[in-house]
Design goal:
The model is unreliable at 1-14 and 415-432 (pLDDT under 50). This protein is an alpha+beta fold. The chain has 19 helices and twelve strands. Strand 6 and strand 7 form a beta hairpin. The chain has helices at 7-30, 46-57, 83-91, 99-106, 115-119, 123-133, 135-153, 167-183, 187-190, 193-213, 221-228, 231-256, 267-274, 282-313, 318-332, 336-341, 343-355, 389-393, 455-472, and strands spanning 66-72, 75-81, 97-98, 163-166, 361-367, 371-372, 378-379, 384-388, 473-477, 486-488, 491-493, 499-504. Strands 1-2-8-5-3 form a five-stranded mixed β-sheet. A three-stranded antiparallel β-sheet has the order 4-12-9. Strands 6-7 form a two-stranded antiparallel ribbon. The protein has two domains: 36-106 and 360-398, no CATH class; 107-357 and 399-440 and 444-504, Cytochrome P450 (Cytochrome p450), CATH 1.10.630. Helix 7 runs antiparallel to helix 8 and helix 10 packs across helix 11 (221-228). InterPro entries: Cyt_P450, Cyt_P450_CS, Cyt_P450_E_grp-I, Cyt_P450_sf. Its cofactor is heme. Belongs to the cytochrome P450 family.
């Protein structure tokens, strides 16, 4: 039987498949780049563009206004430069440009901080409203914890000997203890070194691990996450410290409701009252405490670190600051009110943090929709956008002589105003001289409705700590070990070798 081969019938499907592949390849190469409207800063070379991008972010800007993108190993970041664009970002609501979604993406939050923290961010309204209202009520306890921690870590006897102290470690411990005294009122917990270690390390591990996780596809992240972060270990350790207290309080809540005899008035109780019934469980409440510590300890301690290094580097400000503190306390005592009256201290802290912000990029937002800026540039959905902190803070058009440290820059009288009603050099009295002020120029606490909800609590703690140290200790640089912290990619990293010299101040 003869076998008839219709070669064309076999070749036709192959030809069609080949043609389809060719057409698909051409289509892919010609597919519109969603970022094509946005210029890349610096070199177009893939390697040099990384260097140029971060050189821009960590130095005074060459481009005063504009929108551009910089490459990172985990994708493009769109950077907004100039007042016009920063103001536009400030006014946008989360439905268009979301801060929470940006944090969730940047930190691989579902696998680090926990999806439930982003789905139901109970900590935000608690910190923004109730904790802020309680600053005055908590003031004496906060001051007591600052003083006790300083007594343990810094020289306790008045003599001529200076003691070298790890700057960042001191700042972390003071912040951790003082903040947690408001979070959970049991001193056997908030003063325990093991508890403090897990609270201090959780944020760093989650953020670093989250960055690594972004290199992996979603389906393997649950497997990789326990390897590249210590989040599971942190949860287990926190459970060991908190389970007994949380379970006891939940039993009281179930028995008496939100008002029961001898109820503790702290953040843990507030969480138990606030969360939905399905979230009123041990793991979720522990994640709430871990997350509120992560938000507080890292940035607050970094700001203290910057302030102490600035004091030691510019000792000419120490006596004027002491005089102001002494005068204000004589009139108002040690109180929340007195903290608000220390304008020179406020200004000095602002200047210290202007020079050394925690990150070179701030106010990250994720585009929830395709968004068109007022200048016509299109931001594609799922794009990450941020503002350059140091470039803005070191701009002479925003802060005259920006590279010169001027500790009282923000408490000088205003001389003129611009078309927004702000002082020309953005440094004046009243609201503009407050550490917690939000503006398009001073970017420490972010922008708009998504600004740091705990900034008032943090500012109070920073001012309280620095004012106590100024009135209790002499501080100076160690000439053999100048501060050597630096920015690693976008975040400031203190050197573990950084020390300052302290001695107990002589009383007059």
């Amino acid at each position: 039987m003869a076998l008839n081969l219709d070669l064309e019938s076999y070749l036709t499907p192959i030809k069609l498949a080949t043609a389809a592949l060719v057409v698909s390849a051409i289509a892919l190469t010609r597919r519109r780049d969603p970022y094509e409207d946005i210029p890349t800063v610096g070199s177009s070379n893939p390697i040099w563009s990384y260097i140029d991008g971060f050189r821009f972010l960590s130095a005074a800007p060459h481009q005063k206004e504009g929108i551009f993108r910089i490459p990172t190993p985990i994708g493009w970041i769109v950077v907004l430069a100039g007042t016009k664009h920063i103001d536009e970002l400030r006014t946008k609501r989360g439905e268009e440009l979301s801060a929470s979604a940006a944090m969730r993406q940047v930190t691989s939050g579902d696998y680090t901080f926990g999806a439930e923290i982003f789905d139901k961010p109970y900590n935000v309204p608690l910190v923004r409203t109730k904790l802020t209202r309680y600053i005055g009520a908590f003031f004496d306890n906060t001051r007591d914890e600052v003083m006790l921690t300083c007594d343990e870590l810094l020289p306790s006897e008045t003599d001529s000997n200076w003691k070298a102290v790890s700057t960042h470690s001191v700042c972390q411990l003071i912040t951790g203890r003082a903040a947690n005294r408001s979070y959970i009122t049991d001193p056997s917990i908030y003063r325990d070194p093991g508890y403090l270690r897990v609270m201090m390390s959780f944020a760093k591990s989650a953020i670093q691990g989250g960055t690594i996780l972004r290199f992996f596809p979603d389906f393997v992240k649950p497997i990789i996450a326990p390897i590249v972060t210590n989040v599971p270990a942190s949860i287990n350790t926190a459970t060991r410290y908190l389970s007994k207290t949380i379970e006891s309080r939940m039993k009281n809540y179930e028995k008496y409701g939100s008002d029961y005899p001898e109820k503790e008035d702290d953040m843990l109780s507030w969480f138990i009252d606030l969360v939905d019934q399905e979230d009123r469980n041990l793991r979720h409440l522990i994640m709430c405490i871990l997350h509120v510590n992560a938000a507080a300890i890292n940035t607050t301690s970094m700001s203290m670190y910057a302030a102490l290094n600035a004091l030691a580097s510019h000792p000419e400000y120490i006596e004027p600051l002491r005089e102001e503190i002494q005068s204000v306390v004589a009139d108002y005592g040690w109180s929340k009110v007195s903290m608000g009256r220390m304008q020179k201290l406020d200004s000095f802290l602002m200047e210290a943090m202007r020079f050394c912000p925690p990150t070179v990029l701030t106010s990250p937002r994720l585009a929830m929709v395709d968004y068109v800026f007022s200048n016509g540039i299109r931001l594609p959905k799922d794009a990450l956008v941020a503002v350059p902190t140091i470039a803005r803070h070191m701009d002479d058009e925003v802060f005259p002589n920006a590279k010169t440290f001027d500790g009282f820059r923000f408490c000088k009288p205003q001389s003129a105003t611009d078309d927004r009603g702000d002082s020309v050099n953005r440094a004046g009295t009243s609201a503009s001289s407050k550490l917690t002020t939000l503006s398009s120029d001073y970017l420490l606490f972010g922008l708009g409705e998504h600004a740091c909800p705990g900034r008032f609590f943090a500012a109070n703690l920073i001012k309280l700590t620095i004012s106590h140290m100024l009135m209790t200790y002499d501080i100076k640089l160690d000439p053999t070990c100048p501060p050597s912290g630096r920015y690693v990619t976008a975040d400031f990293q203190p050197s573990p070798k950084d020390v300052l010299l302290f001695r107990k101040k002589e009383t007059v």
